[in-house]
Amino acid sequence: MTKPVDPQLKQEIMAAVKSGMSQAEASKLYGVSTASIRTWCRQDIVGGEMNYIVQINQLKRELIAFFHHGWHLQSIA
């Protein structure tokens, strides 16, 4: 059985993930399993919709990919 994570540490990890750090990066940095972090993120559901942390990070990855490939908003219009 795993030992419980200090609530203050959990709060710090969740803040890092909410600000854009990946779950894998947070896991390595704080020494907490990705499974625990993933569970905490899933528990942080708003209005029954997909977890907003996951949505935000997905949108960030999409924007990075968008600009990484040299696409510009002008080429869409």
Fill in the keyword field for this structure.
66% helix, elongated, 77 residues, 5 helices, mainly alpha
Total count of strands: 0
Task: Give unreliable regions as ranges.
Answer: none
Major sheet attributes? none
Give the strand content.
under 5%
Number of helices: 5
Structural class: mainly alpha
Mean pLDDT metric: 80
Percent range for helical residues? 55-70%
Distance between the termini: 55 Å
Compute the number of structural domains.
Answer: 1
Rg (C-alpha, Å):
16 Å
Note the overall shape.
Answer: elongated
Q: What's the SSE pattern?
A: HHHHH
Question: What's the arrangement of secondary structure elements?
Answer:
Elements: H1 7-18, H2 23-30, H3 34-43, H4 52-68, H5 73-76
Kindly describe this structure.
With 77 residues, the chain is mostly helical. The chain has one domain. 66% of the residues lie in helices and 0% in strands. It is built from 5 helices and no strands. The model has no long low-confidence stretch (mean pLDDT 80).
What does this entry show, briefly?
The protein is mainly alpha-helical and 77 residues long. It has one domain.
